[in-house]
Please model this.
Amino acid sequence: MSKTPNVVLILTDDQGYGDIACHGNSVLNTPNLDHMYSNSVRLTDFHVDPMCSPSRAALLTGRYSARTGVWSTLTGRYIMREDENTLAEVFNSSGYRT
Model:
């Protein structure tokens, strides 16, 4: 089996584009994030929902959050549909340990 690259997916909660130094913030010191930024692939055209759970569902499935069934953050009321394929499942089927 060929060696597959490591994949680390980082999703922060309540972070704006300008909240890290590599995006121009002169107040916050974020050297570790800046280092990862300069040595990684960046998803720069990802649009989020106004709440965290729908944004996570969209990122993990590659679909609009409305299609995943996750509309809000209310516990137990808006759970992602079981038939949704997630990044973890795609990576797992490609030989990654997830």
Residues 61 and 83 are 11 Å apart (CA to CA).
